[in-house]
Amino acid sequence: MDLKHSPLKGRDFLTLLDYTPEEIRYLLDLSAEFKAKKKAGESVRYFEGRNVALIFEKTSTRTRCSFEVAAHDLGMGTTYLDPTGSQIGKKESIADTARVLSGMYDGIEYRGFGQNIVEELAKYSRVPVWNGLTNEFHPTQMLADALTIREHFGSEKGIHVTFYGDCRYNMADSWMVLGAKLGMHVTLCSTAEYFPDVELTARCRRIAEETGGSITLETDPMKAAAGADVIYTDVWVSMGEPDEVWQKRLADLTPYRVTSQIMARADETAANGRITSGPIQDPDTHPQAPHGAVFMHCLPAFHDLGTSTGRKIREKYGINEMEVTDEVFESHDSVVFDEAENRMHTIKAVMAATLE
Ligand code: CP
Ligand code: NVA
User: Fold this and answer.
1) Could you say which of 141, 229, 257, 338 is catalytic?
2) Where are the domains of the chain?
3) Lesser CB count within 10 Å: N end or C end of the chain?
4) For residue 323, which ligand has an atom nearest its CA?
5) For 114-139, what is each residue's pLDDT tens digit?
6) What is the pTM assigned to this prediction?
7) Whose CA is nearest to atom 7 of ligand 1?
């Protein structure tokens, strides 16, 4: 682990569009090394005495905990700025905040609204800025997903991923970018109204031409499942969206809920030489055995009534599950908690690779 010569020193991490396939693979390799060290109980306190600021204008469980644990493992201190507890954007501009925080911290994480805000923060910051989610992109999530896919299938190249749901938002956008960069085949599935930005789609398709990947937009959920190694979904209503959107969103996207029929369709039409018939291997003896398509989700997920949002929506619209059925979420094919753990290892790699 030669972090002194990291090729990414001093770089911001705002969207994977700014990173080459080699740079993304470097971060994935580094993440796997950090994960192995964590499992072996080896200390990685390479940044003792440094400090990072964590700005969250939207709420978080995984991203916040990952930044905090990763920073502490690296020997650093952290300051968490919550959605209400700072002057940011209210009494102090992003440009001024960037200049204040870069005088005290070695790196700044930002989660919030427009991508333009994190870009502005990076423009005025003298230390690396890391995007912890904006309306447009969620690049640290993508590294965790790519690492999970690599662990499960042995490689990310050539893997077929189908994303269901709201294809205009951060997760679908980020899937197009990651897939294009790493030579994956990404299908986004929803009604045409929820298809992604035309310019971003065209840009990702140009990148995919060079890497052997592809981007497909599809309205038929069963067609989209054919040949998929990974079935992916995200909530239909994202953080920061108003309550008024729920009714239409549920009506429009219900045909795109991930069900066991969709998983079965993907299994019957396996793309990567997986075992498609016969008994599924015992998960206890073959935890990583390729046995069919996997289900992935960035989380949090609406798959049962275990949340107050879930119960509120159930009262109003009568549904018990939204973007994924509880059956699929809890199934043997679901690797959502592996993804969640990988958030920490990959965020550690991003900080370690980019800090000066
Ligand atoms: N996936 C994800 O970003 O989760 P949090 O919102 O909990 O950080
Ligand atoms: N699209 C979701 C992703 C959460 C990780 C949101 O922005 O709320």
Assistant:
1) 141
2) 3-138+342-354, 156-274+294-332
3) C
4) 2
5) 999 999 999 999 999 999 999 999 99
6) 0.94
7) 61
